[in-house]
């Protein structure tokens, strides 16, 4: 390449560097030193061009050469102007896309629905110094909530070191942080406090502030059911209990022994894996409870008997003997079923839309009774199926293949039943609702973090308790992998991506164009 061609390229780059130095100072890095360096380097490159192209510049007075130089300068200024305009537009109309696998920068459907359902404006006050490591993450979380519902959620940050009265009001010691979520206006507005929250905690706080009253959920005990609090070294439902409390329920244990009826304040009753028979009076109390419009979630287990067969048959549900098995749709064991075969029920509609797979270890299946045993007015529907290749294995300890006489085909793993009870003498609710799930171990603490199963259970609770807004997808337990950048690193990244890289491309293009025009 001849020296004139090289200096022509230098001249193109120099002109771009010189003209773009104010852009660097005002819009990208903000660094005076960097902008000055660009201007000096650009001027040097232009000087090299002027020295090596003196004759061309001497002929600049001619009409053709003058037009060429004028068009070159105008083209450069035009391209640079377009670049500046595009960057300004991108800065003001900043569009964001969440490409992470767990969608860690997007609000969950439950959060969006909660914000949309707020009847009074919610305000978040973060008592946290700007130097705190979680400041930026919390500000980003609040920003997403505000953008989703600008009229329903706003926020503010206060440094407790600069506002000692607020720190004293909330009894904050030096170095402590706190977030205050309030509903409505004024000092008397209902509020709740929580440590630096993730999305789930913040959404649950909004749900609790919006709730007019918590529904009491009774967990039956006395028949080997899973306990709300696990014994030392044992399994229990403490994670489920915490989830219920966060969503506005009040879980409590209940032993029906010696009782003639379920307490009148019961919003819902849960049977979580009973392993011994309920007595005749206890079954009668449950039958009366549903007959008056009660709500019941029933979770069974393989190889157990609980004496509730006839009671369930009243509502069109019959528990199959044996264990559901599937040779294809499993997690490596034919008795650990994995399913995305959903019915048309509201409980699983959000899971189906997201394409979630539900996993049930050693599940039992149900036969749905459409006539005969069931009570008048009962409607029963399948909620979750196995695949069409499944069967009911009657001897799971001896055989893992289907045998003659065993039920085969697509099995019902979760069912929901309802019955109009508006005419009941001691009516509790207008409609009785029952959800039967063929596996109770998905409720246990070690299994609770499995997102699809957790949403299946909580949606069943929402449907049974007539709370449509709680049939949704909750924020997942996200493993966030983020890269923390300092302010200097952010300026460098901004300079490279919005200044240096596009200018380099423009410089190369301009140099090529000038070379071709000059031939």
From TrEMBL:
Origin: domain of life: Bacteria
Keyword Transmembrane helix assigned: yes
Classification via Pfam families: ABC_transp_aux
Regions crossing the membrane: 68-91, 495-514
This protein's UniProt keywords: Membrane, Transmembrane, Transmembrane helix
Residue intervals of the ABC-type uncharacterised transport system domain: 215-448
Membrane keyword on record: yes
Name of the protein: GldG family protein
The organism of origin for this protein: Corallococcus exercitus
């Amino acid at each position: 390449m001849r020296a004139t061609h090289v200096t022509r390229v230098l001249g193109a780059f120099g002109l771009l560097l010189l003209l773009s130095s104010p852009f660097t100072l005002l819009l990208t890095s903000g660094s005076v030193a960097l902008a000055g360096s660009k201007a000096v380097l650009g001027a040097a490159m232009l000087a090299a061009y002027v020295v090596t192209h003196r004759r061309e510049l001497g002929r600049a007075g001619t009409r053709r050469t003058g037009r060429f130089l004028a068009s070159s300068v105008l083209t450069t200024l035009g391209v640079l102007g377009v670049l500046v305009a595009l960057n300004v537009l991108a800065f003001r109309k900043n569009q964001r896309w969440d490409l992470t696998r767990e969608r860690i920068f997007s609000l969950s459907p439950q959060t969006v629905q909660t914000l949309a359902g707020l009847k009074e404006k919610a305000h978040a006050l973060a008592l946290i110094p700007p130097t705190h490591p979680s400041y930026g993450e919390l500000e980003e979380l609040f920003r997403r909530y505000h953008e989703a519902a600008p009229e329903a959620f706003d926020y503010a940050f206060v440094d407790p070191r600069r506002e000692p009265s607020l720190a004293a009001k909330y009894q904050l010691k030096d170095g402590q942080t706190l977030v205050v979520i309030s509903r409505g206006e004024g000092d008397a507005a209902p509020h709740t406090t929580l440590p630096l929250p993730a999305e789930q905690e913040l959404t649950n706080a909004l749900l609790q502030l919006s709730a007019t009253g918590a529904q009491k959920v009774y967990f039956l005990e006395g028949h080997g059911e899973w306990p709300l609090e696990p014994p030392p070294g044992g399994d229990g439902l403490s994670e489920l209990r915490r989830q219920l409390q966060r969503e506005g329920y009040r879980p409590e244990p209940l032993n029906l022994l010696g009782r003639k009826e379920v307490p009148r304040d019961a919003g819902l009753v849960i049977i979580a894996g009973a392993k011994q028979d309920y007595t005749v009076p206890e079954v009668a109390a449950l039958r009366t409870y549903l007959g008056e419009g009660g709500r019941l979630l029933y979770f069974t287990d393989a190889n157990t008997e609980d004496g509730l067969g006839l009671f369930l048959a009243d509502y069109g549900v019959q528990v199959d003997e044996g264990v559901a098995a599937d040779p294809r749709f499993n997690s490596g064991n034919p008795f650990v079923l994995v399913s995305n075969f959903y019915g048309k029920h509201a409980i699983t509609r959000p899971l189906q839309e997201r394409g979630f797979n539900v996993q049930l270890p050693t599940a039992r299946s149900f036969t749905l009774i459409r006539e005969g045993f069931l009570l008048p007015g009962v409607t029963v529907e399948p909620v979750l199926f196995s695949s069409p290749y499944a069967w009911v294995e009657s001897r799971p300890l001896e055989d893992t293949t289907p045998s003659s006489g065993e039920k085969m085909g697509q099995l019902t793993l979760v069912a929901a039943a309802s019955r109009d009870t508006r005419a009941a003498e001691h009516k509790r609710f207008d409609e009785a609702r029952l959800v039967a799930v063929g596996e109770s171990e998905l409720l246990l603490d070690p299994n609770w973090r499995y997102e699809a199963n957790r949403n299946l259970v909580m949606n069943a609770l929402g449907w049974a308790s007539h709370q449509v807004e709680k049939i949704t997808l909750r924020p997942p337990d996200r493993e966030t992998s983020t890269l923390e950048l300092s302010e200097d690193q952010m300026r460098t990244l901004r300079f490279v991506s919005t200044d240096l890289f596009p200018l380099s491309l423009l410089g190369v293009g301009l140099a090529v164009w000038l070379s071709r025009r000059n031939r």
